[in-house]
Design goal:
single chain, mainly alpha, two-stranded antiparallel ribbon, 9 helices
Length: 242
Amino acid sequence: MNEESRALHERLARLEELLTAARQEPAWRRPTRDESRWAVSAAVLAAVALQLLLPERLAFRPVWLLPTLELLLLVVLLCAFRISTRRWASMLRAGGLALAALVSVANGWSAALLIRGLVRGTEGSDAGALLMTGAGIWLTNVIVFALWYWEWDRGGPAARAAGHHEYPDFLFPQMQSGELAPADWEPAFADYLYVSFTNATAFSPTDTMPLSRWAKLLMASQASVSLLTVALVVARAVNILR
């Protein structure tokens, strides 16, 4: 009788374990480890490099100011992250948003000057140089919006790691079906960079859908800037080649 009772308890315990595993929420909905900042740092460094490669006439003056501020802020954020992410969570979020804003200002300034010059006919006498300049601004725009998506989705990387927000702002395919990804999958910066790139090329969402209003407005803004930049640059380059 004792053996039968023990066997029954073992079966019940095993069944409880299986039910608990089945009810376990995916990684993107529960507290997890903090995301590494190396991919974001590499993207910011690429954006700074692209800014420095632009012609001086299209750069924010003085030319060294915004890139220097971006690099300094990036170093501070990396140091704070290595010390303690949870302790400095609010500072990291504020600093991350400030960094995204600085890159946005620098690239927005260059894009506005380029578009104004194209409309007035004062910009773009060489097709090759014009295409390279437009490509640099376009690529920086992709990085800029990837930073915004990464910083805003469900309260930012620290809030996502802590599992504070229940509802996502971006619905990735892996969130819709557990069979499409391992149990420990959660969105990282590379996923937001992909969302930004596809939105900049297709001028609309592709496989990842924006759910919140701010996400929809951000994607609409990015698509508009990308479409305007590409259309004007390509049109001017074609006219020069003719």
